Amino acid sequence: MDAVPSSAPARRTVILAGAGAAALAVCPRAATAAAAAGPVPLADRPAEAAELPLRADRTTQGDVLAGSRKDHACLLLLHFRDVVLARRWLARLVPELSTTEEMARFNALFSAARVKAGGTDPASLSAQWTGLSLTYPGLRLFAGRDPFPAVPADSTAEAFTQGAARRAEALGDTGASAPASWLFGAEDPRRAVHAVLSLSADDPDRLASTVTRHREALATAGATIVFRQDAGTLAGALRGHEHFGFTDGISQPGVRGFHAPDPATGTTVQGKPGTRLVPAGEFLVGQEKAGQRPAGLPAWANGGSFQVVRRLAQDVPGWWEQARQRLAELKKAGAAPADATATWVAARLVGRWPGGTPVAGCPLAEVPGPVGSDPDAHLTYHEDAQGWHTPLFAHIRKGNPRDGLVPGPGRPPLDPGVLDNRRIIRRGIPFGPAYDPQHPEGAGGPDTPRGLVFIGYQADLVQQFEFVAKKWINESDFPAGRNPRVGADPVLGPDSPVTFETESDNGSRATTLRFGRYVRTQGALYAFTPSLPTLRALAQGVLDDSVEVHPGTVLRPGDVLDAGAVRLALAADGDLVVLDRSGARRWSAGTAGTGHDALFSRDGELTVRTEAGATAWTSGTAGHPGARLLVKPSGDVVILDVDRVLWRAPGGHVG
Fold it and tell me: Cβ distance 132 to 97 under 8 Å?
């Protein structure tokens, strides 16, 4: 499919306003509060930019943290037949890959210019970005061996190794969304996707010439394009929206070390008071994770992120017809205002009005804030346990419960910080032309392919993407313990009855509605977006598969770091041990009964600590910031300062 061209010479983001003066009376503080919280572009704050090291990172690929944010995109899904030619191609490609530093710098300049222009995109600023991700078969091809020394059950390594097609049923990709009907992701192993080459640009002609150049280079490398996915920002009033008509890409997590913290809180993004800062290790492997949890991944994963690619087809007329039908049912039950429209219902399915304003603060109609303001500045579910304002089944609440997740009826909501390890960075872009009911026989007709290319980044496929999809989006009993059940997400979830709750004299009144599935999965991949150093090594056929314990990591009883031939574990009795393949103890710190946790500090020291925080055992290697703790498939467990061994677990093997 061709990228959707822009029909307007001057590019603007149009905010759909479903409200007039009457809506201002509903939430009069929305616009003024949002204006006061408007972001200050990082480009105007050089001193603060210097304190955000991830913004200056030239080793990580930029789409993960910064985002390409281009109007036109093309994904080429590649299969290589000759590893020698493939590695030569990779070596030539690496210098072209876009880094976090490049994208962050450009995006800051672009955003600042756009705010100054009142929402018009600056025509003088233009860029083209290149990214590369590798699937499990692709990593294995370039490395010449298995990239994982061990694949623990229920781990992200297992999910990545199996791939999206093998895990489709558990994720709800069944029936019309089953892999048998996919356009990519379920190929014969002899044509398996090895790599995802992502190309994006502001200018469609520039993107077209870039795609042509890469196709020629791939032909020289003997590669096959298994599938080509073109995509582009929708034109006109739908610019910045997905095909159902709702603004997309709102509510991205803030990332520590990349986004400036608000000095007043330290836990939210400056200029975006409704956005929590999440530890960077939830998105980039090698950074500190929430709760200082171990990643348990090989060293080649450092600086990279697991990528989920999904082609989601959208039945636009079917979805809106369903909204109209459910509106009639709600009016008949007295659960909707007499003047409510289909948009009123659709906004509750999503949790936002089409322009992005949450229904929580503006229940009757939308009141958009100024350009550049944070629509979620005051979004909270804490006092809405029944879902009277934002339904419990609403798409944005299912995918990110924020401060309103009640673990059981009558219990207080959980602290939102406990959900940091469930966040995902989303990079979506529409494909296909917008639906046009005035021209049903043309490209705007209902049978023309259209939908969303979903791209998500996370450090743990199982605990982030898969958890959210299985336990929140698709689960009818989430939030749990309610009678009747809440129901699945009516936007992305399976066919499901949902409970629409409204306030009544006797408390909460429940109206049951049934929603069908109008978003269908047409393809899915699990890939990994490696750092540039890892890609350079792969171009030489080199891969460091030592399992790394990153500085700042805390091991707790039951944690096991598995490198196949050897495992580093904190046993249930608090003893730090090294185990061989059979599970026999090769070495022990002798902390059984006294050890509470084990910390690998930022200055290179491994210690076992008591419950009171005292040192029960130490490696004695303090004073070496930047040192690495590796569990090596050769059988070694070592702390290295570059190549110098600072500590080795007794009984290990030199290698």
Answer: yes
Query: Taking a C-beta distance cutoff of 8 angstroms, is the pair 498, 486 a contact?
Result: yes
Judged against a pLDDT cut of 90, whether residue 74 lies above it is answered with yes
By the 8 A CB rule, do 473 and 399 touch? yes
Place of tokens 């969303």: 452
Please indicate, yes or no, whether the overall pTM of this predicted structure exceeds 0.85.
yes
Domains and CATH numbers, the chain: 47-103+123-311+531-539 (no CATH), 547-648 (2.90.10.10)
425: its two tokens: 């960075």
H or E segment at 276? strand 272-278
What CA–CA distance (Å, rounded) separates 67 from 253?
12
Percentage with pLDDT > 90 across the chain: 85
CA dist list (Å): 549 to 292, 298, 655: 11, 9, 18
Query: What is the phi/psi pair of residue 54, to 5°?
Result: -70, -20
Strand 272-278: give its sheet, edge to edge: 254-255, 272-278, 268-269
Question: Tens digits of per-residue pLDDT, 122-140?
Answer: 888 999 999 999 999 999 9
Does residue 35 carry a pLDDT above 50? no
* C-alpha to C-alpha distance for 638 and 632, rounded to whole angstroms: 8
Query: Given the structure tokens 């929590």, which residue do they identify?
Result: 276
C-alpha to C-alpha distance for 169 and 152, rounded to whole angstroms: 21
Q: How far apart are CA 463 and CA 493, in angstroms?
A: 18
Confidence of residue 115 (pLDDT cuts 50, 70, 90): confident
